[in-house]
Design brief:
Elements (H helix, E strand, L loop, with lengths): L8 E4 L7 H10 L4 E5 L5 H4 L7 E3 L5 H12 L6 E4 L2 H14 L6 H8 L1 H11 L8 E4 L4 H6 L5 E5 L9 E3 L2 H15 L2 H4 L8 E6 L4 E10 L2 E10 L12 E4 L5 H18 L4 E10 L2 E8 L12 E2 L4 E2 H9 L12 E7 L5 E7 L1 H5 L4 E6 L6 E2 L10 E7 L4 H17 L1 E5 L7
Parallel strand pairs: 1-2, 1-4, 2-3
Antiparallel strand pairs: 5-8, 6-7, 6-8, 9-10, 9-12, 11-16, 12-13, 14-15, 16-20, 17-19, 17-21, 18-20
Helix pairs in contact: 3-4, 4-5, 5-6
Length: 431
C-alpha cells in the first residue's frame, strides 16, 4: 500500500458500524490523514479499496492488547488524536490518549459513561436528576425473587448494551419475569458471553419515568460544553420496548427549558469527569422537570449525524469532531436550518424480501435522502433482541424555527408512509 503521508487521526470503529464512510469523507474534507482502528481489519479492503492511510487491526475484547497495538503503531507514525464511535471504543480511546499524552478523557470518566450503573451512581452523588433508586441483579439470580423486590412500573436493562437493545418495561411481576428471561437470553448469546466483564452479566432495574424525550448533541473542549443541537423525539417512548424513530431539531420546547437542559448536561459531564470530545445525552421531561437518562462519550449513532449541517461551510458533525480532537475548533458552530432523521423500525422478525416506495419517499418535499441499509435476504431481528434499523430518512428546511421543525417532521412521516417492506417469517421460506 502506498502511504502518501502519516496518519493524524486514529478512528476507533467497529466494522459493523454505520460511521465508517462519513468519518472517512470528513477527514478528506478537513485535509486530515485517517488511520482506522477496527475489530475486523481484513474486511476494510473491500469497503475502502482506495484508502490511502491504512488500517489497524484491534481486538476490542482485549483492551490491554488493543492499547499495546496502538502504542506500538504510535512509535512508527504520527497519531495526533484518537476518536471513538461507541461506548467501548471510548474507553480504549481514553486509555490510549492518556498513555500517548493526547487530548482526551480520562479512563475513569470513560468507564463511567460506559456503565449505566456507574452513571446512575455518579448522578446520584452529584445530586443530578436521574431514574432511581436502581437495583442490580445477576442473570443467575431467581427472577421471581427479584420481581418481588422492585416497584412498578419499572425498566430492566443490560448494563453494557446501547441503542435500546434489551431495554424492556415491566408493569407487574409477570412482565418482569418475561423481560428478565429475554434479557438473560440476549446476555447469554455467544456474542455477549465473549465480553469478559462482570457487568456483562448484570441487569439494572430502575423506575420508569413518564414523559417525552430529548437528545442533546454537543462537544466538550477543555471541559466546556459546546452545544450543537437539541433534538425532539416526538414519538412516545413508553414501552414495553424503546425503539427510537424521529429526531427533530431545533427543539420546539421553550428557550428557557432548552438552556436548562444544556446546563444539566454540562453539569453531568463535569460530575463524570469528561473533558474532551463528542457527547450524546438522552433526557426525559418528567412532570417535575428534565431527568438524565444517558450521557455518552461519543456522538449520535447510526447515520443520524447526517441530519446535522453547520455554518456557512455546510460542515458535517464528523468534521467538527475531527476539528475538536485536533484543537482546531475556533468558534461555536451554528446549526443550519431545521432538520431531522427518521430511523425506520423493524416491523417484525423474518427475512427481508423486498422494499417498495423508495422513489415516492424521495419525491416528498423537504426529503433530502432515503437510505435503506437493510439488504434483501437479510434476517431481521426487531428490538429488544435486535440492534439495527431498516434504514434512515432525512429531511431539511431552510427555516430554523419551530415551523421549520414541524414541516420536517411532517415530511419524514409522509415519506415513511410511502415505504413498504415485505418481511416473511423464516418458516415461510421453507418450500
Amino acid at each position: 500500500m502506498n502511504v502518501s503521508r502519516a496518519p493524524e487521526v486514529l478512528l476507533l470503529v467497529r466494522t459493523t458500524s454505520y460511521r465508517l464512510d462519513d468519518f472517512r469523507a470528513a477527514a478528506k474534507r478537513r485535509d486530515v490523514g485517517l488511520l482506522v482502528g477496527t475489530d475486523r481489519c481484513h474486511e476494510l479492503a473491500d469497503v475502502w479499496p482506495e484508502e490511502a492511510f491504512g488500517s489497524l487491526a484491534l481486538d476490542f475484547r482485549d483492551l490491554d492488547a488493543a492499547l499495546a497495538t496502538i502504542v506500538a503503531r504510535a512509535d512508527e507514525t504520527s497519531i495526533a488524536a484518537i476518536i471513538p464511535t461507541d461506548e467501548l471504543t471510548a474507553v480504549l480511546a481514553a486509555r490510549a490518549s492518556t498513555t500517548l499524552g493526547l487530548r482526551g478523557n480520562t479512563p475513569a470518566a470513560a468507564a463511567i459513561a460506559r456503565s449505566k450503573a456507574r452513571l446512575r451512581d455518579t448522578f446520584a452523588r452529584a445530586g443530578l436528576p436521574s431514574p432511581g433508586p436502581i437495583t442490580l441483579f445477576s442473570i443467575e439470580a431467581d427472577p421471581g425473587v427479584a420481581a418481588a423486590a422492585v416497584s412498578y412500573p419499572c425498566v430492566l436493562k443490560p448494563l453494557l448494551l446501547s441503542g435500546s437493545r434489551g431495554v424492556i418495561r415491566a408493569d407487574d411481576a409477570r412482565d418482569f419475569i418475561a423481560a428478565w428471561t429475554r434479557i438473560a437470553a440476549i446476555l447469554s448469546s455467544p456474542e455477549l458471553r465473549a465480553i469478559d466483564e462482570p457487568e456483562a452479566r448484570l441487569i439494572l432495574v430502575e423506575p420508569f419515568v413518564a414523559g417525552v424525550e430529548l437528545a442533546v448533541e454537543a462537544l466538550l473542549v477543555a471541559g466546556k460544553l459546546v452545544p450543537l443541537a437539541i433534538f425532539d423525539k416526538p414519538d412516545p417512548l413508553d414501552g414495553p420496548y424503546f425503539e427510537e424513530t424521529l429526531y427533530i431539531t431545533p427543539s420546539r420546547f421553550s428557550p428557557d427549558l432548552q438552556a436548562y437542559v444544556g446546563r444539566l448536561v454540562e453539569a453531568a459531564t463535569h460530575a463524570m469527569g469528561l473533558s474532551e470530545g463528542p457527547v450524546h445525552a438522552e433526557l426525559r421531561l418528567a412532570e417535575h422537570g428534565p431527568v438524565l437518562l444517558e450521557v455518552a462519550a461519543r456522538s449520535i449513532g447510526g447515520l443520524c449525524a447526517r441530519a446535522l449541517r453547520f455554518g456557512l461551510g455546510d460542515l458535517a458533525l464528523e468534521e467538527l469532531i475531527i476539528d475538536a480532537a485536533l484543537g482546531r475548533l475556533d468558534e461555536t458552530p451554528t446549526l443550519r436550518g431545521a432538520s431531522g432523521v427518521l430511523m425506520i423500525p423493524t416491523p417484525k422478525a423474518g427475512v427481508l424480501m423486498g422494499v417498495t416506495g423508495v422513489e415516492a419517499a424521495r419525491s416528498v418535499p423537504l426529503i433530502e435522502d432515503v437510505v435503506i441499509s437493510a439488504k434483501v435476504g437479510e434476517v431481521l431481528v426487531p428490538l429488544p433482541e435486535g440492534s439495527s434499523y431498516l434504514g434512515f430518512l432525512f429531511a431539511r428546511h431552510p427555516d430554523r424555527s419551530g415551523a421549520g421543525a414541524s414541516a420536517v417532521e411532517h415530511a419524514l412521516r409522509t415519506a415513511q408512509a410511502c415505504l413498504d417492506f415485505e418481511v416473511r417469517k423464516r418458516l415461510e421460506m421453507r418450500v
